[in-house]
Amino acid sequence: MYSTTVLTDFVAQHYLTVPDPGPEGEPHSHHYEVELRFRGPELNEYDYLVDIDDAEAALSSLSSRYRDSLLNDLPEFETYNPSVERFARVIFERVTEAVTDDTVTELAVTVWEDDEAAASYDAAV
After folding, report:
1. What is the full per-residue pLDDT of the chain (125 aa) written as tens digits?
2. What is the rounded distance in angstroms from the CA atom of residue 110 to the CA atom of residue 36?
3. pTM above threshold 0.90
4. Which residues form the signal peptide (predicted)?
5. Radius of gyration of the chain from Cα atoms?
6. What is the CB neighbour count within 10 angstroms for residue 6?
7. 89-95 contacts at long range (C-beta below 8 A, 24 or more positions apart)
8. Can you list the alpha helix ranges (DSSP code H) found in 22-112?
């Protein structure tokens, strides 16, 4: 199985909407790092798993959308608690719409909200 990984980072804000979230219920910032790991059993005719330019364009679009935003105000988080786990799923859905290489069979998205805490979402594409 082949894999290709690309990374980006940005600062965004959120607040948790669960009962009794403590200080996490107040708006606060995180320096998020997003890792996309594309996987597949074969390479394309150019010996690539994924077009790295497309993957980097998807990351650039993500960074532009979320940088300096309050996640709670965005439609993709409406009615959802904007946890790091939910954020990983949202990013997965956006990336699979943007990067459509036939050789990619799986995508894993890991979102680090600081140096010690991360969440991932991965599935077949």
Report:
1. 999 999 999 999 999 999 999 999 999 999 999 999 999 999 999 999 999 999 999 999 999 999 999 999 999 999 999 999 999 999 999 999 999 999 999 999 999 998 899 999 999 99
2. 7
3. yes
4. none
5. 15
6. 18
7. 89/121, 91/34, 91/36, 91/62, 91/121, 92/121, 92/122, 92/123, 94/58, 94/61, 94/62, 94/65, 95/36, 95/58, 95/62
8. 52-66, 84-98
Amino acid at 103: T
2-124: CATH superfamily: 6-pyruvoyl tetrahydropterin synthase/QueD (3.30.479.10)
Tell me how far the alpha carbon of residue 65 is from its chain's centroid.
12
Amino acid at 46: Y
Instruction: Give the per-residue SS3 of 2-41.
Output: EEEEEEEEEEEEECCCCCCCHHHHCCEEEEEEEEEEEEEC
- CA–CA distance from 109 to each of 22, 24, 25, 28, 45 (Å)? 27, 23, 25, 22, 26
